[in-house]
Amino acid sequence: MILESLRRVLEANALITAFMFVGALVWLSYLISAKLTRGHVHGSAIAIALGLVLAWYGGLATGGSRGLSDVPLLAGVGVMGGAMFRDFAIVATAFGADIRALKRAGLVGAFSIVIGVVLSFVIGGIVAVSFGYTDPIAVTTIGAGAATYIVGPVTGTALGAGTDVIALSVAAGLTKSVLVMIGTPFVAPRIGLNNPHSALIYGGLMGTTSGVAGGLAATDPKLVPYGAMTATFYTGMGCLLAPSVLYLGVRAIL
Amino acid sequence: MVIYGVGLLSFCMLVGMLVGDLLGVVIGVEANVGGVGIAMILLLVLSNLGSREAALSPITERGVGFWSAMYIPIVVAMAARQNVAAALSGGWMAIIAGVAAVAASFALIPVLARFGQGGHNDS
């Protein structure tokens, strides 16, 4: 009876349940960071990694597509971590950002977005070709998926690709996003990702909003506004370039 | 009041999203083009208008600061709702395409960063 009431209360107040759950998860992660890694691995990096593991478990357990939030008790995590709150918090981080750093990197930031889209697209396309795909539409869709998991399906739908190819492009984009979240804090020292300038370029090259948001949170939250600023233009640029210029390029080559 | 800060933040986000959506329609792509970025610039401009009367009071700032501080927990929730299972079940081609794209992009960051910095050093 008590369990039944508890379940009812937690499910009826889903978003509040999510706040409590994430609070506990972050607390546990900082504890692990301090005790097990002696502060070497940042607490937020551990929290994000634990979140991804739980998402993987949630997907396996429920067969749904929204990770842990498909577990009925934790549906609120889906609201809390959805695009609405994510974008709201990202915009809030701009408060106190250095306008001069943004202005100074304006041109190279814009440049990095175009390079980022083309680079990921070309590499995704090459991988597709090396796995035996020769149809220009399939190669373009998979290349677009390597940009972000939104560019892939948008491009595939525009060109009339098959659902199996579109699913592959989404998987490639998801892999990218997950890897950027986990990998960024580890490669940050080696690639000089420690100032607003390189964060702007990082956002433009990576482009995946979730990946950049998670990667910078785990590396240095002060860099978030700069990376997010350029990343937010990436998906639009990808949706613009992939089904048009890049598709024509692929068709000319294959 | 705290709600002034939250209201200002919401106003900036909605205006940014609207402009981003219209940009997408104008360019002809099915995506919001830079909505978050435009919202950030708007927030920066509005909160730095400069004149002393227009400056935000500390309590108003707390309305924005709270959401800024909630950023990491929200990102943790975002991680927990990713479709990780689908990413891992997409097969080797999808994984290799994703990994290769990330590796190449990481490698290019120092190159572009040096390029744009132009010998000018700030730390």
What does this structure look like?
The complex is a heterodimer of chains A (254) and B (123). Chain A is mainly alpha-helical. Chain A is 78% helix and 0% strand. In chain A, helix 8 packs antiparallel against helix 9, helix 8 packs parallel to helix 10 and helix 11 runs antiparallel to helix 12 (209-219). Chain A has 2 domains: 2-81, no CATH class; 99-253, no CATH class. Chain A has helices at 2-12, 14-35, 43-62, 75-80, 83-93, 99-104, 106-130, 136-147, 151-159, 163-187, 196-206, 209-219, 224-253. Chain A is built from 13 helices and no strands. Chain B has 123 residues and is an all-alpha fold. Chain B folds into 2 domains: 1-81, no CATH class; 83-117. Helix content of chain B is 76%, strand content 0%. In chain B, helix 1 packs across helix 2 (35-47). Chain B is extended, with a radius of gyration of 20 Å. Residues 119-123 of chain B have low confidence and may be disordered. Classes of the chains: A mainly alpha (254), B mainly alpha (123). Chains A and B meet through helix 2, helix 3, helix 4, helix 5 and helix 7 of A and helix 1, helix 2, helix 3, helix 4 and helix 5 of B.
Please mark out the parts of chain A with pLDDT under 50 across 5 or more consecutive residues, or reply none: none
Treating each run of at least 4 consecutive H or I residues as one helix, how many helices of chain A? 13
Q: Assembly state here? A: heterodimer
**Count of separate DSSP helical elements of chain B:** 6
Helix/strand class of chain A: mainly alpha
Uncertain regions spanning at least 5 consecutive residues of chain B: 119-123
How is the main sheet of chain A built?
A: none
Strand content range of chain B: under 5%
